[in-house]
Amino acid sequence: MATKLDTELESFRKIWKGGFFKADPLEPLDSLYGLWGYTSMQHATYLACIKPYINSRTSAVEIGPGRGAWTRAMVGAGEVTCLDALSAEHNGFWEYVGRRENVRYFKVDDFACGMLADDSVDYLFSFDALCHVSFDGISAYLTSLFPKFRSGAHGFIMVADYTKYNNFVKNLSRFDVTRTLLAKSTGSLKRRVVEAYLLPLQAHARNRAAWRPLNLSEDDVARPGRWYNAGGSRICELLEKLGYEVLDQDMELDYRSPVIHFRKN
After folding, report:
1. What is the C-alpha separation between 145 and 112, in angstroms, rounded?
2. Where exactly are the structural domains of the chain?
3. What's the pLDDT tens digit per position in 42-99?
4. What SS3 state is found at 50?
5. Selecting from 3.40.50.150, 3.10.20.310, 3.40.640.10, 1.10.600.10, what CATH number does the domain 41-162+223-263 have?
6. Is beta strand 259-263 parallel, antiparallel or unpaired with respect to 149-158?
7. What's this model's pTM, rounded to 2 decimal places?
8. Whose C-alpha in 32, 98, 175, 253 is 20 to 30 A from the C-alpha of 167?
């Protein structure tokens, strides 16, 4: 065995001069595997914020499920309770998620979470929903949820933060996968990337509104679908004031908005 291991170590002596290096882990789009080395923001969020916390014993709550894209990632829980300002019929929720005995859906008229029993919730998730709720609304939700959480319950919420969003807009090129793919592609591969991926992507981008900075002093008036500048730091301060423990002020999974990880001790 010793001889085999000695030979194994010796096999490394003359390779990778200067150290093996193919990608910088600190660069968001630098990939070791080139075209096959990318994971979507949504899937990364699932892997980091949902998969490790959901099992057949979990009592989960989702705020703002919409059609149920994230809900379908949580149906392995013992129970999933969805709260939304719009009805399940409006969202086409059951058509997408399917009728399941362990999934409940409530159209809410307030922030009281009265359908939840005290000391009953193990897990909370909300993505691309509370960004459309004012700081006061988020505060009401988190206040109401505190007695509903069991000790050790985890929560993940995405909120709007204009400062982070504006930094994203200011540095769009750093987050542009087309720039990275072109830089790493050559010859026929580069041509195939341009024809099959980049040209359709650029055409799609031209048909959507341009990214623009948001006004940090924008009003707090309710308008359909608007973002509210609740702010990541402000929400974290609120969480701690209410008695939660903030484990991560921003999971850094969304380039535009903070995803906050917290827990009730």
Report:
1. 8
2. 41-162+223-263
3. 999 999 999 999 999 999 999 999 999 999 999 999 999 999 999 999 999 999 999 9
4. helix
5. 3.40.50.150
6. antiparallel
7. 0.90
8. 32
